[in-house]
Specification:
By secondary structure, this protein is α+β, with helices and mostly antiparallel strands. It has 4 helices and 11 strands, in the order ααβββββββααββββ. The strands form 3 sheets. A 6-stranded mixed sheet has the order 3-2-5-6-10-11, with no helix packed on it. The protein has a 3-stranded mixed sheet with strand order 4-1-9, with no helix packed on it.
Length: about 160
């Protein structure tokens, strides 16, 4: 009888426990993400500006270019505004959760609970890691459109 229990635990329970724990970003992920923010003029020349970035978790202040800004992950978008005198650059970094990751987790035992925990903690969300604002424009940046090693493409925001 003992060998059957050892066999069952080693073949089924331990791998299942590993899958469940590996599937939860709150257990395996990090609470923050590194984001680079820079501001350029109409000719793509870098401009130093005072910036504020904020999401539902926190506010961040610094001078652009901001390199390796540790932003707390959140389901809310990251709003960025930079000023220097009368010059203003604005942008929104869209918060994205992995659809594929969510679908896989939903199939695992306890997957729905993992999705809820990851959503509430913000761990399943990601922002573009390189944001390039342009003076005089209000841009929207989406991590789904970013090519690794390049700034996320900014689309003009619809402003009423």
């Amino acid at each position: 009888m003992r060998s059957f229990i050892e066999f069952f635990c080693s073949r089924f329970l331990l791998p299942l426990a590993a899958l469940v724990l590996a599937g939860c970003a709150t257990v395996t992920g990090t609470p923050t993400q590194s984001v680079n923010i820079q501001v350029v003029d109409a000719l793509d020349r870098p401009i130093a500006m005072r910036c504020r970035a904020s999401n539902a978790s926190a506010d961040y202040f610094g001078d652009a270019p901001m390199r390796d800004l540790q932003v707390r992950r959140s389901s809310s978008d990251l709003q960025i505004e930079c000023h220097r005198g009368s010059l203003i650059a604005r942008g929104t970094a869209v918060s994205r959760g992995s659809v594929v990751d969510g679908a896989v987790k939903a199939l695992l035992p306890g997957g729905t609970a993992m999705l809820v925990v990851d959503h509430l903690s913000g761990y399943r969300y990601v922002y573009p890691d390189w944001i390039r604002l342009r003076i005089g424009e209000n841009l929207v940046f989406d991590a789904d459109r970013q090519i690794p090693g390049k700034p996320a493409p900014g689309l003009l925001a619809d402003v009423p």
